[in-house]
User: Which sequence fits this backbone?
């Protein structure tokens, strides 16, 4: 999705058309819906990841319906805004589950004895995790403030500036720490690999 958004942004820039926006909540909800897991009924038992239902139908239908909604404006205007905000709020909150940044944010308010067995907690000291999370929160707050002011026009430049921030973190954190708290490998996969290493030992 992001690949096509990138191409279409370049095309729209040359043609003077409005830019596309990568809808994060919709994208996360769509990816989550494609995930296949085992059905568990035992309390506390985590579902096992089985694979991905690879298809493009839902994505196409979503964007076709989004396009049709332009012509349904006279009808859609009767839907109260609080209802729409409620739907998007629900989708956003439902999509937070399993995002490592959100898991690390919850650790600020969680006593050590109640902390889940996150794999990054096994390898990185808690104070280092909190520091990394605080940096991310500050960056998010700055982006949010910029987006909400007249300076919103430089928002894409600030997104690029995050690359510089990430490079500067290499001087603050060790590569070992960053490998566990800032890695593209999913939490479940890293946990499986870590458990296998422990069993071999």
Assistant:
């Amino acid at each position: 999705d992001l690949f096509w958004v990138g191409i279409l942004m370049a095309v729209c820039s040359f043609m003077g058309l409005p830019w596309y926006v990568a809808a994060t909540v919709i994208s996360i909800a769509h990816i989550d819906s494609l995930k296949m897991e085992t059905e568990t009924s035992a309390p506390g038992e985590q579902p096992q990841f089985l694979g991905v239902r690879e298809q493009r139908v839902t994505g196409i239908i979503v964007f076709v319906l989004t396009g049709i909604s332009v012509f349904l404006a006279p009808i859609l205007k009767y839907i109260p805004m609080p209802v729409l905000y409620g739907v998007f709020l629900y989708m956003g909150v439902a999509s937070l589950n399993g995002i490592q940044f959100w898991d690390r944010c919850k650790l600020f308010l969680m006593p050590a004895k109640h902390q889940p067995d996150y794999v990054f907690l096994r390898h990185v000291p808690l104070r280092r995790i909190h520091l990394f999370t605080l940096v991310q929160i500050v960056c998010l707050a700055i982006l949010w403030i910029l987006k909400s002011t007249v300076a919103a026009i430089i928002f894409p430049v600030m997104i690029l500036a995050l690359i510089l921030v990430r490079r500067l973190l290499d001087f603050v954190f060790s590569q070992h720490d960053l490998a566990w708290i800032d890695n593209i490998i999913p939490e479940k996969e890293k946990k499986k690999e870590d458990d296998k290493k422990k069993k071999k030992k």
